[in-house]
């Protein structure tokens, strides 16, 4: 069964990093450059949280702040669910679902930052192993039509 370590190792090294003291406008520009929906917030080498599109919409726009005056550390997410490298993809899916999160923080055995697991990372794992997830007979039945033309 695939685990967090497998996902982290399959991803490129984290390059989408921003300092907590940066302005939100700089974070938005960086997110656009790297074509990702989040940035890892680090001070020196220490993980502090993430800044994502949801943070921008909920903590900047809806609160009447401006991106050219607001710093990342004022609006970033710091309380993401945490997973270990040995945790399974299934555990991650359950955690994302129960916590209503789009991201998980993966930590090494020494509790140091290993990476971010996104809902998209998990969906890619499910699709890649669809034969282990989806019953072929049930899938075919869903595709087939009954005599009345309805799809099951």
What is the strand and helix layout of this fold?
Blueprint: H1 4-10, E1 17-18, H2 24-34, E2 38-43, E3 46-52, H3 53-61, H4 72-75, E4 82-84, H5 89-99, E5 103-107, E6 113-118, H6 119-128, H7 130-133, H8 136-143
Parallel strand pairs: 1-2, 4-5
Antiparallel strand pairs: 2-3, 5-6
How would you describe this structure to a colleague?
By secondary structure, the chain is α/β, with parallel strands linked by helices. It has one domain: Roll (CBS-domain). 42% of the residues lie in helices and 19% in strands. Strands 1-2-3 form a 3-stranded mixed sheet. The C terminus is likely disordered.
Q: Considering the protein shown, what is the CATH homologous superfamily?
A: CBS-domain
Quote the average pLDDT: 88
Major sheet? 3 strands, mixed
Query: Termini distance?
Result: 31 Å
The helicity comes to: 40-55%
Low-confidence stretches are 145-152
Strand content: 15-25%
Count of helices? 8
The CATH topology is given as: CBS-domain
Task: Assign the CATH class.
Answer: Alpha Beta
Main sheet strand line-up: 1-2-3
Element string (H = helix, E = strand):
HEHEEHHEHEEHHH
The tally of strands reads: 6
In short:
By secondary structure, the protein is of the alpha/beta class. The protein is 42% helix and 19% strand.
Question: Top keywords for this entry?
Answer:
152 residues; alpha/beta; CBS-domain; three-stranded mixed β-sheet; 8 helices; 42% helix
